[in-house]
Amino acid sequence: MKNLILYFSIFLFVEKNVLSQHILIGKDLQDSSLLKNAVFVKGKIENGDTILQIEMKEFVVVPPMKFKTEKEARKYSKLERQIRKVYPYAKMVKLTLMEIEHRFETLKTEKERKTFFKQKEKELFGKFEKELVNLTISEGKILLKLVDRETGKTTYQIIKELKGSFSAFFWQTIAKIVGDDLKSEYDSEGEDRMIEDIIFRIENEQPD
Q: I want to staple 184 with a disulfide (CB 3.0 to 4.6 A). Which of 2, 67, 140, 144 is the partner?
């Protein structure tokens, strides 16, 4: 059938000269030196021609930021530095929470879950405690909001679910004393619109 399209997978070998590309077939696929530098891509055969199918990362272009005053520009620049510092921690919390929830499903008893959680808690404290303790109050507040952005849960809710209401209440009280709020929610359309803009630019590597 002329319109029949056969989809298959091929190896594309890209040399130093990007314009020079060699498709590995037959005995080439047994040459480890070639496979070492090969890239696995999809392709199809249509009307006797081999057509490569390479997925390109979406690139979103947004206009550069414009500021009314120098003070506003400095405020934005400071906020960007703070977000770049704490955003990785928020993503780490998301991944850790997913890991814990997945592991909890495989554990049969409450004792096993508590043991696993304590091990995970000890591991995280050992790895990140010094860095998190050195965060400024404003950086801490941004982190709490970003945790809600990434997980869909406030820090208070996470602590309550994993450690109980008393622990959540205790840490919320401590947070209030130092000017934080574990119940901080993220508002991308309101007061946190600037944070959302910065994260969008960071994720898409956009200039300010």
A: 144
User: What amino acid occupies position 70?
Assistant: E
Residues 6+ apart with CB under 8 A from 143: 86, 89, 90, 135
pTM of the model: 0.64
Q: Are 17 and 113 in the same domain?
A: no
Shared domain check, 80 and 37: no
Q: Are residues 90 and 178 in the same domain?
A: yes
pLDDT in tens, 22-78: 555 555 555 656 555 555 556 666 776 766 666 666 666 667 778 889 999 999 999
Domain that holds residue 28: 6-53
Tokens read off for 37: 């530098």
Angle ∠(124,176,199) on CA atoms, nearest 5: 60
Question: What count of residues does the chain have?
Answer: 208
Q: Do residues 192 and 123 both lie within one domain?
A: yes
| Amino acid making up residue 158 | I
Is residue 78 located within the same domain as residue 168?
yes
Whole-number Å distance between alpha carbons of 55 and 11: 15
For every residue of 81-125, which 3-state class applies, written as one string?
HHHHHHHHHHHHHHHHHHHHHHHHHHCCCHHHHHHHHHHHHHHHH
